[in-house]
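quick one
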Amino acid sequence: MKTEKEIIKMMSGPELIRLAQVLRVPLTRRHISRTLIEQDLVDAIEAKNSDKSSVGQCELKNPAIEITRMRKEFGRKVAVKDLDLIVRPGEIVGLVGPNGAGKTTTLRVLTGIIKPTYGDVFVNGHNMASDPVSAKMKIGYIPERPTCYPSLKVIEYLTFIARIYDVPRVDALLRIREYVDRFQLDEFLTSYIGTLSKGNLQRTLLAGIFVREPPFILALDEPIYGLDPRGAWSLKAHLKDLKKDGSAILVSTHILEVAEGLCDRFFIMNHGDIVGQGSLTDLKDKCPGTNSLEEVFLTLTGGIPKE
Ligand SMILES: Nc1ncnc2c1ncn2[C@@H]1O[C@H](COP(=O)(O)OP(=O)(O)O)[C@@H](O)[C@H]1O
Ligand SMILES: [Mg+2]
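structure w/ adenosine-5'-diphosphate:
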């Protein structure tokens, strides 16, 4: 995570002026030097933070995500069979399995996009069925096929998200700069979302989530898949940082190397069933002779093919 001083250093002239307006730092002739304006802004933010130090960061409920006996049928097709899953604050949990295993369906039920056939979903203690607004307010979702308002510009979308999630304006300005930089969105800030590539759209949605107040509860559907190696590395590093700060993260992926390096625990799904779960050590112990998540996975889903 970057400090406020580091973020301010990355800001453009107009962004600094905007921040000064919001912080009510009057700009004077001496501010022609960039260093002086930066220092005054840092001082103003520190003064503001010391005022609100008693508020403290909110902590997530434990478990942050709870899915109990959840089943989802599409007609006669059972996409997810009686799933029990929890994610605690400070954990990254991987939902891994082949195409059609039920990963996307699970995340769509978790985020309230579709209703389960039966079973319950709780986000930070809020029941998605009876209190959907509170539950949705606290979850950040990146869908497998990202979509977003095509006629908004990237900067408009990020500002809009900050407003609807009630992010204080100073925090919003700093976070937007931090995440635009982290996800290399600077050159697309004034591009229409409808013109973005899949990777840049995904990064915009990610930046939109992180503009909100941490810690986060995240449901990420194949988040690494559309990113280039630098973007993927940056996202993985960021997810590990968020975990240290108490976020709860559920990631679906069929790329096992990604899951192995990132997640603390795994749920291995196949045809809607959980065929194995636990840490990599637990799973390797249950499948003697295996050395990696890939070998565990193959063993649990039909056996390791003979050459
Ligand atoms: N809206 C839907 N209507 C009918 N069947 C669906 C629908 N969504 C998913 N399915 C089926 O449910 C199963 C699980 O799909 P999905 O959750 O997308 O798997 P995964 O994300 O693991 O690839 C698949 O057999 C898929 O065809
Ligand atoms: Mg999927």
